[in-house]
Design a protein that fits this description.
- The complex is a heterodimer of chains A (about 55) and B (about 180).
- In chain A, about 15% of the residues lie in helices and about 0% in strands.
- Chain A contains one helix and no strands.
- The radius of gyration of chain A is 22 Å and the shape is elongated.
- The N and C termini of chain A lie far apart (about 80 Å).
- The relative contact order of chain A is 0.09.
- With about 180 residues, chain B is an all-alpha fold.
- Chain B has one domain (about 10-170).
- Chain B is built from five helices and no strands.
- Chain B has helices at about 10-45, 65-85, 85-120, 125-140, 150-165.
- In chain B, helix 1 packs across helix 2 (about 65-85), helix 1 (about 10-45) runs antiparallel to helix 3 and helix 1 (about 10-45) packs across helix 5 (about 150-165).
- The two termini of chain B are about 15 Å apart.
- Classes of the chains: A little secondary structure (about 55), B mainly alpha (about 180).
Chain lengths: ~55, ~180
């Protein structure tokens, strides 16, 4: 009898999925040099170090 | 009469100064990356075996040989590192962000002018500002660098403080 709902491992993946993932190495598998993160790592906004004065 | 420091209009002025800070900061980052790109390109091009510089007879003298070697090592490192820095792509992405902040700043200056001329922060102006806040959230989602240049940010913040001091802004009377 076949298992209609294969058990999932700790990462939530079904059995047999891990091997498939390793076959597809993407850019994300390689770390970026320091200070040169992947796009989208941070918000495109800098905040002032202290609040703007109101006098 | 003392100015109301908790008037909602200060949200407009604070955001205007933050937009100006971002516009300056990202323009500064672009200029810095462009300088890096220029010098890396120049170094790699000058050390290329077919370049006019490499073909000078001085490099075959007893003084020139070690000098050329000392120059060729950083040039070789530069040619290896250059593609992984992806400078052109990063400059393009930051140009998009800087342009968006310049547009955003111009719109906030428009709101500031409206408040000054009407001498009030009315519902129409508030609606315009709320609409801009929605756009700011979208703008912040654009690709950016993982590391912030703290020194550049401090310098830009000081410039903004000088350009747009709090005394520059009009604060309507309470209830307006």
């Amino acid at each position: 009898m076949t298992d209609k709902h294969p058990k999932k491992d700790d990462t939530g993946k079904k059995k047999g999925e891990k091997k498939k993932d390793k076959e597809h190495i993407t850019e994300e598998d390689f770390p970026s040099p320091p200070g040169y993160g992947h796009e989208g790592d941070e918000e495109a906004r800098v905040e002032p170090e202290e609040p703007w004065d109101r006098k | 009469m003392p100015r109301d420091l908790n008037h909602p209009v200060w949200e407009v002025y604070d955001l205007l100064r933050t937009a100006r800070l971002n516009s300056k900061y990202y323009s500064g980052r672009i200029a810095r990356l462009q300088r890096q790109q220029f010098w890396l390109d120049a170094l790699v091009a000058a050390a290329a075996s077919g370049s006019a510089l490499a073909s000078l007879p001085i490099w075959s003298t007893s003084f020139g040989r070690p000098a050329w070697q000392a120059f060729a090592i950083p040039a070789a490192v530069a040619s290896v590192v250059k593609p992984s820095l992806n400078l052109s792509k990063r400059i393009r992405a930051l140009e998009e962000v800087a342009t968006a902040y310049r547009v955003f700043e111009a719109e906030l200056r428009g709101i500031e002018l409206t408040i000054r001329t009407r001498k009030a922060y009315d519902s129409g102006t508030r609606t315009h500002f709320e609409h801009l806040l929605g756009r700011l959230k979208e703008l912040a989602l654009k690709p950016a660098e993982a590391k912030e240049d703290a020194k550049l940010k401090r310098r830009c913040q000081e410039e903004v403080k000088r350009e747009l001091p709090s005394t520059h802004f009009f604060v309507p009377e309470e209830g307006k």
